[in-house]
User: What shape does this take?
Amino acid sequence: MFKKQLMLALAISLAFPLSAQFSTSAEKLQHHVYTLAADSLLGRGFGTPQGQAAAHYIARQFREAGIEPLNGQYFHPFNHRLGILNIEGVNVAGVIPGSDPVLKEEYIVLGAHYDHLGWDIREGDTVVYNGADDNASGTASIIEIGRNLARNRDSLGRSIVIVAFDGEESGLIGSTHFIQDSIIPPGRIKLMFSLDMVGMYGEHGGLDLHGVKLLNDYEWLIDELAGRHHVEIKKANGRTVQRTDTAPFGNRRIPAVHVFTGTESPYHQPEDVADSLDFDGMALIADYLSDANLQLSTVENLSDLPGPSEEQIAGTRIFSAGILAGLGPAQHNYREEFYKGKSILAAEAGVFLQIRLASTVSIQPEILYETSGSSHPDGKFRTHSVTVPLNLVISTPEQMGFSSYFQVGGYYSYHFEGKVGGEKIDFQDIYDNQEWGIAYGFGFNIMNVKWGVNFRNGLSGIMQDQDAGKILPENVFISLGFTF
Assistant: This one.
């Protein structure tokens, strides 16, 4: 047993050399936060002149810290369509090239969003949402971590990309464009850190690392290395956070770690100002993450996640599948009469496949078990069926993991069993065991969960003898689905 422990310790010491010495300046962090969270920048709203002024300040600090421009320039501009508005945003990105002849072609991305909520008018006064903790704290930290790593560039294996994202508060827009535009090939990104709200270390009682357990040997990071820097790790898990800039990376199966000190600051309130931040705690975190990135840049295999697929590298997944179930009223419409049949409870459950044609357009076939019917003059009429809807789905662009959709198409049902008034339905001579009609609905997606309302109106009657009068089925389902 002792021999095994000795071998493990030796392996770790070889994988992670002794920590470098860093001494991040709390005064520099404070200067950055007070500059970015000043009233004059009016909350750094997405697409505003004040947001652009913040971007230029960050680029100047990158240059002064020794962070080189990425692909020859610090600015990564992009356009975002919002209704009739075309908003111009800009990420600020730099790189510290690695020194290993092989690993330098791979990247660790260290990011933070610099935008916030802008300003408002209350009782005739301008109220600024300064966003000191959210997220001037993260932006200030990546500048100084970049400075630390630039001074130790000869010890880096992988290249380190430092990026300040725009448009996070409006739906992770800047980080999404960073991935979609392949500013660096997504397949070469081996790890991502997002520093979003790191200014309340003391008040929070430590540091949260959401997603760190996606890394191999993460125990060393949260125990030994954190201990060397006297950093208390309060939470550590293997979950990619979807409500910050880790999401576009995690959705490409890139391990992404959210670095966080909680919501003890006045989250999304005007009171989130620079005076309230723990700058000594921020310096402690910056030293720890500088050392962590230096060490991780030399590790051959950072994670056993499979990495982005070819489809994901090209863009959004083409194919996705899931399960869904629904409940709702079903009834029969007596077209040649002035009334409808009374409704009964209908249910459905099955699987679906979504085939993406464009970023917001897809085709969705489904295979469902369905039970429906109506209250009938001879008693309750209920069928058991295999139903196959096929819909064209048009959705809104995803923002913060949320999107809405409308779908329209058709369906086919085969009734394999049924009863009316307690007696078996005669599908041979009286009732038709096949049905087809139109389908439509609407709903919304929250990450992998689908909520919707689906309507199915039959165009074929339930009777074989059409002279008996056309009786058409009508179903409504409130559905819940999950996409794998």
Observations:
- Residues 1-18, 310-315 have pLDDT under 50 and may be disordered.
